[in-house]
Amino acid sequence: MNDAVLLRWKEFLLLLKIFILLLMLDAYDFNSEIGTRVKGTVFMTDNNGALVDITAKSSAYLPVQEASIHRIKRLEEAGIVPGMREEFVIIGENEADDSLILSLRSIHYELAWERCRQLQAEDVIVKGKVVGGNKGGLVAVVEGLRGFVPFSQISSKSTPEELLDKEFPLKFVDVDEEQSRLILSNRKAMADSQAQLGIGSVVTGTVQSLKPYGAFIDIGGINGLLHVSQISHDRVSDIATVLQPGDTLKVMILSHDRERGRVSLSTKKLEPTPGDMIRNPKLVFEKAEEMAQTFRQRIAQAEAMARADMLRFQPESGLTLSSDGILSPLNSDMPAEGLDLSDVSPADVSDGISEKESD
């Protein structure tokens, strides 16, 4: 076979490959209908959006406003850079150049609604950011979705203006994607949070504000008062020398008045040695659980002493106190199983904390 024949044969094979490729392209039925999900790779970005390769016969464009469920000004805020491969949804077509318009925002919305339904089913507390309000309540963003919090479902006495741009705890009341209805409740979230506050328990909080008489601490959406007398065993003349707004610290629950919505806190009870909160607060927080356990043991001892005192001053009752806190009969006329005093109110072991201080 001479060189001329070999060259023609190579040209024929090349044309055959091109022909087969064209047939394959014609056979490729790309679905460009609105709502179709497609895989694509970002290959160029600018201030207005990104060009995406979706292996179609026409180009595809992702506008910046369709890049995220959140409001962004630049694609980088949503992590969109050249080379990123993602699933997009077709939302339209540009008539000027027949290019397809893509969206990530639509997919994010679907995922957000699914997440909210899951959180509602799990009955969990979430944080929502207040972004607006009207005559009926507040608008808060949760998982990227705008939800409505009726005033009847807000436990805070703060005004809408005071709550604007702040986060507060919420629970889901109604999640309806078809009706685009997302109803939330701050009151339910607060009730659940307060139910978990046990006397002597240690919680982490953030200093919200300082007053001459103490500091208000945010403990998971609930404001508690750390009275100046409960900061340290050593006298604190100026709270600002110990605490500042924004500080994170561990505090112990001293008392919880659910009816009045008041929570009294203490770091004084967590001090390994008097004055540690002033000299070495880090040590106080490291030893917080250990010191709280000691405090709870003191409560238990005080309860036992209270039961013993009750028997000592009422010998005519004909009862004796066992080691496990059960009143048992001294004579056969009483029930053999005894009387369980586990529900007796605990004694006051607050070391002299006055009502004025706890307020």
UniProtKB/TrEMBL annotation:
From the Swiss-Prot or TrEMBL record, state where the protein is found.
Plastid, Chloroplast
Which keywords belong to this entry?
Chloroplast, Plastid, Repeat, Ribonucleoprotein, Ribosomal protein, RNA-binding, Transit peptide
UniProt keyword RNA-binding present: yes
Ranges for region Disordered: 322-359
Provide any one GO MF term from the record: structural constituent of ribosome
Tell me which residues make up the S1 motif domain.
35-105, 123-187, 200-268
Q: Which GO terms describe its cellular component?
A: chloroplast; ribonucleoprotein complex; ribosome
For this protein, the record's SMART domains field holds: S1
Keyword Repeat on this protein? yes
Give one GO biological process term: translation
Per the annotation, which location comes first and is thus the protein's main one? plastid
Q: Name one Pfam family in it.
A: S1
Q: Polar residues bias located where?
A: 322-331
Stored Gene3D superfamilies: Nucleic acid-binding proteins
Superkingdom in the source lineage: Eukaryota
Q: Which family does it belong to?
A: Belongs to the bacterial ribosomal protein bS1 family.
**Protein name stated in the entry:** Small ribosomal subunit protein bS1c
The species is Populus trichocarpa
